[in-house]
Amino acid sequence: MKKAVIFLVLIFAFSAVFLSDGYSLRLGNKDLVKLGVGQRSMFLIGTVYYASLWVPQELKGKSAKEIIEADEPCAVILSIDSKLITTEKFVKATREGFAKAAASGYATNKSEGFLTKFAEMQIAKGDTIYLYYTPGSGLSASYKSKATGETKNVGVTPGLDFKKALLAIWLGPNPVQESLKKGMLGQ
User: Fold this and answer.
1) 20 to 30 Å CA-CA from 102: which of 57, 65, 110, 176?
2) Which residues are 144's β-sheet partners?
3) Helices H, strands E: what count in the chain?
4) Is the pLDDT of residue 62 over 60?
5) Which residues have C-beta within 8 Å of that of residue 104, sequence separation ≥ 6?
6) Are strands 138-144 and 46-56 parallel, antiparallel or unpaired?
7) For domain 24-184, which CATH number applies: 3.10.20.740, 3.40.30.10, 3.80.30.20, 3.50.70.10?
8) According to the model, what pLDDT value does residue 11 have?
9) Which residues contact 14 (CB under 8 A, 6 or more apart)?
10) Positive or negative, the Cα torsion across 133, 138, 144, 150?
11) DSSP string, 30-99
12) CA 35: distance to chain centroid?
């Protein structure tokens, strides 16, 4: 009996370590919790990227619209999972996402300025893009290259309107992929 209990405790401990993603986020003096992870996939290509959504505890369980509209810190972390993704394809797809968001009522005039900041990056499989929104400061973007191990600050785009438009790409009424939206919301 004692061996069975020890075995179960060890299984639980190893599960906690290996199933955890090791991230802990704090933005705008608030601890963020991971709401969910969604998978962006395309027919015949498979998985393109994974997107995780981080929000303050008080937004956990809220609707997508409430999360988009909230002037609260949040983060989206994109993990590129396809060697077919290039900087040009990333920018083109994100531009199309902003157009869909605008058609859903989340327009911003800051999208092109944001996209030009990625022009110098060489996005490849295994890279990570970090998007952090802090009220009063704006949305900061950084990029970590798997090949070099370097993280580069891409810049800050100010304004709640921009945060709303960016989140609406994934969480809006007309998201880039419905299953991705549900995954990011933890549904």
Assistant:
1) 57
2) 128, 151
3) 6, 7
4) yes
5) 168, 172, 173, 174
6) unpaired
7) 3.50.70.10
8) 31
9) none
10) negative
11) EEEEEEEEEEEEETTTEEEEEEEEEEEGGGTT--HHHHHH--S-EEEEEEE--TT--HHHHHHHHHHHHH
12) 11
Q: Which token pair is 171?
A: 């969480």
Question: Would you place residue 23 in the very low, low, confident or very high pLDDT band (cuts 50, 70, 90)?
Answer: low
Please tell me whether residue 7 adopts helix, strand or coil conformation. helix
183 contacts 36 by C-beta, under 8 angstroms:
yes
Q: What is the mean pLDDT of the chain?
A: 86
C-alpha–C-alpha distance, residues 85 and 71, integer Å: 31
Find the length of the chain: 187
Yes or no: say if 128 and 141 are a contact pair by the CB < 8 Å rule: no
CA 7/CA 13 separation, integer angstroms: 10
Q: What is the mean pLDDT of residues 57-79?
A: 96
Global pTM value: 0.84
Q: Return the domain boundaries, the chain.
A: 24-184
Share of the chain above pLDDT 90, in %: 70
**Cα 25 to chain center, whole Å?**
13
* Lookup: tokens for 129: 């893009």
